[in-house]
Design brief:
alpha+beta; NADH Oxidase; six-stranded antiparallel β-sheet; 7 helices
Length: 195
């Protein structure tokens, strides 16, 4: 079980919008499990008793999956973890620090290698396309943008920075995360403390 998400902060939405930036350089400080819990909840956490989530989803079909590649997170061994929104937990997928391989898959972008952790957003298109046909893919991409922006805005009151990375080899990322065949990586979001 992850630490419970906070529902209040000292930073208003307007301040977070003003201060949000793409950050590619991070301090060497580790992240806390509370930081990770808050970021994952902001992107896909359950936000009410009806199991609705923090980001809008066409038909409430929730095609997104979140993974965490942890390298320098307090109380969390290096490895790959999948976020389970219904229980607000992480399930370990792989052991060991995978940031170097992930950075190579992302055209050697150093922010991916140097960040204490990387959030990876993937999609299972069939969860949406069964209902909306080919247009469902568009809805999935819209939803991934909503979830990514939530991470950006949540990072501000935590004193963290992130950046969306879309330049990567899908096949290599799938291999590192050991993704099922029908799951497609959409975003890599390295996260760390700002300098």
């Amino acid at each position: 079980m992850l630490p419970e998400p906070r529902h209040r902060s000292h930073v208003s939405v307007e301040e977070a919008l003003r201060d949000r930036r793409s950050v590619r350089n991070y301090s060497s400080d580790s992240l806390t499990l509370a930081d990770i819990a808050q970021l994952l909840w902001s992107a896909q956490g359950v936000s009410d008793a009806r199991d609705r989530r923090t980001a809008p989803s066409a038909g409430a079909l929730y095609p997104l999956e979140l993974y965490l590649v942890a390298g320098n997170v307090e109380a969390l061994p290096a490895g790959v973890y999948q976020y389970r929104p219904a229980r607000h937990t992480l399930s370990r997928v792989a052991v060991g620090d995978k940031r170097g391989g992930l950075a190579r898959a992302a055209l050697r972008q150093t922010c991916v290698r140097d960040a204490p952790a990387v959030i990876i957003m993937t999609a299972v298109y069939e969860r949406t396309t069964w209902k909306y046909g080919d247009r469902g893919k568009r809805y999935v991409h819209m939803e991934s943008g909503h979830a990514a922006q939530n991470i950006y805005l949540q990072a501000v009151p935590l004193g963290l920075g992130t950046v969306t990375v879309g330049a990567f080899s899908d096949g290599k990322v799938k291999q590192i995360l050991d993704l099922p065949e029908n799951e497609v990586p959409l975003y890599l979001m390295p996260v760390g403390r700002t300098r």
